[in-house]
UniProtKB/TrEMBL annotation:
Domain Cobalamin-independent methionine synthase MetE N-terminal: 6-329
Stated role: Catalyzes the transfer of a methyl group from 5-methyltetrahydrofolate to homocysteine resulting in methionine formation.
Species this chain originates from: Phragmitibacter flavus
Protein's name according to its UniProt entry: 5-methyltetrahydropteroyltriglutamate--homocysteine methyltransferase
Gene: metE
Binding site for L-homocysteine: I451, G452, S453, E504, D619
Length: 779
């Protein structure tokens, strides 16, 4: 009984040592040639395929590699290049890809060493947004009534040939057509991207024919939208599209995957797809299993994702085996495949480069490479050829994680149990607080501020790296950071930023920084995961009850406040974001962990207020990303998420101004919850969408103060004064002047000082012009 296949949906492309990031950024800077960049790509692909093969994975994904983002790769494959880039047609190049992702500067004012201008006009990058409820961001496809599709990239074909040449049993992977259309955005009011379905499916037909002609036995089409609420039209379109694709597949077989959640009422439609294999995520969609098995079609292969592709806990073998046994009874060994739940791109690469994790904790974890071993071990255990020792060891690890005293802290549990309803509320409602804050802060109209971080230059990162390696003493590192902070504050003072920040130079990543100072968290040395493009994160691991042993930011804030007379904004990360951007324990509800974190942040907020900080920002950029994929599940989540924020913020006096910040989100869906946070000021990302995001705030008559971002910090482009003024005029047509702030979209950590300086000088000038302008009355 050896027929049970193992396969993988996607493997992290970044390299064990972030080779992909380093090469891509070097290419952007002009320090690496295109040929060298491509060679790095080939090397990474080969390494990753061979690793999977050696682990014993039977079918290995191809085209999961990308130099930026797989959705953008697909747009290039389909020739769907936004018209503003004036793409001449033919095959898209790597520079086409990078240009769409990063935008271009006008050649004449181009002052940045890190981007490659290709157009003579300044062109906005495409929007970027969260991939479902993950911390991965994809480049949003743009659809126009006259969008046309035609094969415009050789990448998937070349990579398939490359894998074949290496003797890899390769399975090309693509995002499916319905997911692609659903995730894109119409560029014209009233235009429905699904009008393009017919032409899109024709191009998919050609792609499939071509792959089939070159010997692809399987093609994987990802349709994670099956985990969303779907309309009858989408469900019909799915059947139609796959009927057409099935009719051209030739010898090739199609695998359609769903992941990230249960299929629920979509299940019969999924079962009905005219394809040869279906994949289910049993980690997030385990509730479906009985229904899947009851009605599973007799002509299809059942692929079960039992190993969590998105979290780092070791698989509970016994639980997985019990699910697999049920499936085996139903479909038999020839029709059962075993896999991770979703692509492993959301997991760090390997535990092998983690010398600093202690043995007990390490024994609770599995990263991508270990997950592949788990998939193969499960297959062996299921077929009776596995080692019993492995099962015994797995059981022991699961058991110690349940009971270890490192995980359970009674005083944290008691404190949470004793929280009262009053702990969630500010003393007075917003209008009263606003008055008191205006009196205390004495800010001008259209006050200017930034979102917190300033450029994390090579110098800053290298100083931190040397300090971590012991090559720089604590004192030297601290003095270095103090000098950076002082310079940053002097700059803000000089150009007239009304509410300065200290610049966050002491932080590696916001979440990692707080994680490192809280009990119940562990952190890795090399556990990087791609967030977007060349930007990666190293999420902390929340393994136990959370508490704050001592103040975390007060020293930096009080030092910063001594350097300026203007009110300094304290800078914290909120409980939902810390939760969302960490690997979270799966042995208690996420809400409980969030509320434990909230109490730790609350203590920090009160300490900042105590040392005289008059405004405190509690960032919650991830609150939207945490929203469940199904509407039915929203309310429960929003209730505890909003309560977590309020618990962290509500302890302060009326005249202490609480800010929050959000980015990369559509707010329409959750505007009531955002208002429910009751932050005095919210700064949000709006510039790439041309203030569109403000509509939600207007429709809802959002009562508190808002800083709609006027400077897109994801691109090296320097915005002009007029452009930012115009954006604010748009905002002022919607929101009363006294409630408006002027600020960038997000933190400046990824930018260079040259661009930041000019951009912020422009921004302050825009605010000054606005103060001189005649107030606009709202429509
Ligand atoms: N967790 C998280 N999620 C988020 C965001 C965020 O800020 N944090 N922002 C949104 C967008 N996502 C982003 C994700 C990452 C980065 C980012 O800038 N990442 C940095 C890494 C940040 C970091 O942890 N830096 C460390 C390590 C830096 C490093 O690479 N050090 C070098 C040494 C440098 C030297 O010697 O010169 C090395 O280890 O090799 C530090 O500063 O200490 C990067 O990829 O470059 C930005 C935005 C949404 N999700
Ligand atoms: C991703 S939101 C970032 C907020 C943070 N305060 C910063 O400026 O970097
Ligand atoms: Zn942000």
């Amino acid at each position: 009984m050896h027929n049970i296949n193992t396969h993988n949906l996607g493997y992290p492309r970044i390299g064990e040592q972030r080779e992909l990031k380093k090469a891509t950024e070097a290419y952007w800077k002009g320090n690496l040639s295109l040929a060298e960049l491509e060679a790095t790509g080939r090397h990474l692909r080969k390494t990753n395929w061979l690793k999977q093969k050696q682990a014993g994975i039977d079918l290995i994904p191809v085209n999961d590699f990308t130099f930026y983002d797989q959705t953008l790769d697909l747009s290039c494959l389909l020739g769907n290049i936004p018209p503003r880039f004036e793409w001449p047609g033919g095959d898209t190049t790597l520079d086409t890809l990078f240009t769409i992702a990063r935008g271009t500067q006008p050649a004449s004012t181009h002052a940045c060493e890190s981007c490659t201008p290709t157009a003579s006009v300044s062109t906005f990058a495409s929007e970027m947004t969260k991939w479902f409820d993950t911390n991965y961001h994809y480049i949003v496809p743009e659809f126009h009534p006259n969008t046309q599709f035609q094969i415009s990239s050789r990448k998937i074909f070349d990579e398939f040939a490359e894998a074949q040449a290496l003797g890899i049993n390769a399975k090309p992977v693509l995002i499916g057509p319905i997911t692609y259309l659903t995730l894109g955005k119409s560029q014209e009011a009233g235009f429905d991207p699904f009008d393009l379905l017919d032409s899109l499916v024709s191009t998919y037909e050609q792609i499939i024919k071509r792959l089939s002609a070159t010997g692809a036995e399987w093609i994987q089409l990802d349709e994670p939208i099956f985990a969303l609420d779907l309309t009858p039209t989408q469900l019909d379109d799915l059947q139609d599209a796959y009927r057409r694709l099935a009719s051209v597949r030739g010898q090739t077989k199609l695998l359609v995957t769903s992941y990230f959640g249960p299929l629920r009422e979509n299940l019969p439609h999924f079962h009905a797809l005219p394809v040869q294999a279906l994949h289910f995520d049993l980690v997030r969609g385990g509730e479906d299993l009985p229904d899947i098995l009851t009605s599973f079609p007799t002509d299809k292969i059942l692929s079960l994702g039992v190993v969590d592709g998105r979290n780092i806990w070791k698989n509970d073998c016994e639980q997985s085996l019990s699910q697999l046994h049920d499936a085996l009874k139903t479909v038999g060994p020839d029709r059962l495949w075993i896999a991770p739940s979703c692509s492993l791109q959301h997991s760090p690469v390997t535990l092998n480069n983690e010398p600093n994790l202690d043995a007990e904790l390490k024994n609770w974890l599995a990263f991508a490479d270990q997950k592949l071993e788990e998939v193969v071990d499960l297959r062996d255990l299921l077929t009776g050829s596995g080692s019993n020792e492995k099962l015994v060891a797995n059981r022991a690890a699961t058991q110690t994680r349940r009971t270890s005293p490192r995980i359970h802290n009674p005083s944290v549990k008691t404190r949470l149990a004793e929280v009262t309803p009053a702990d969630f509320d500010r003393t007075s409602p917003f209008p009263k607080r606003q008055q008191l804050q205006h009196t205390k802060l004495k800010l001008p109209q259209f006050p200017t501020t930034t979102i917190g971080s300033f450029p994390q230059t090579a110098e800053v990162r290298s100083a931190r790296a040397r300090w971590k390696k012991g090559q720089l003493s604590d004192t030297d590192y601290e003095n270095f950071l103090k000098a950076e902070t002082a310079r940053c504050i002097a700059f803000q003072d000089e150009i007239g930023i009304d509410m300065p920040v200290h610049g966050e130079f002491e932080r590696n990543d916001m979440v990692e920084y707080f994680g490192e100072q809280l009990e119940g968290f562990a952190f890795t040395s090399n556990g990087w995961v791609q967030s977007y493009g060349s930007r990666y994160v190293k999420p902390p691991v929340i393994f136990g009850d959370v508490s704050r042993p001592k103040p975390m930011t007060t020293e930096w804030s009080s030092y910063a406040q001594t350097l300026t007379d203007r009110p300094m904004k304290g800078m914290l990360t909120g409980p939902v974001t810390i939760l969302q951007w960490s690997f979270v324990r799966n042995d208690q509800p996420r809400s409980t962990t969030a509320h434990q974190i909230a109490l730790a942040i609350r203590d920090e907020v009160l300490d900042l207020e105590h040392i005289g900080i008059a405004a405190i920002q509690i960032d919650e950029p991830a609150i939207r990303e945490g929203l469940p994929l199904r509407r039915n599940d929203w309310k429960a989540y929003l209730d505890w998420a909003v309560k977590a924020f309020r618990l962290s913020a509500a302890g302060v006096k009326n005249d202490t101004q609480i800010h929050t910040h959000m980015c990369y989100s559509e707010f329409n869906d959750i505007i009531a919850a955002i208002a429910g946070l009751d932050a005095d000021v919210i700064t949000i990302e709006t510039s790439r969408s041309n203030m569109e995001l403000l509509d939600a705030f207007v429709d809802f008559q959002y009562p508190n103060e808002i800083g709609p971002g006027v400077y897109d910090i994801h691109s090296p482009r320097v915005p002009t004064v007029a452009e930012m003024e115009n954006l604010m005029h748009k905002a002022e047509a919607l929101i009363p002047r006294r409630n408006l702030w002027v600020n960038p979209d997000c933190g400046l950590k990824t930018r260079g000082w040259d661009e930041v300086k000019t951009s912020l000088i422009h921004m302050v000038q825009a605010a000054k012009n606005l103060r001189q302008s005649i107030p606009v009355t709202q429509a």
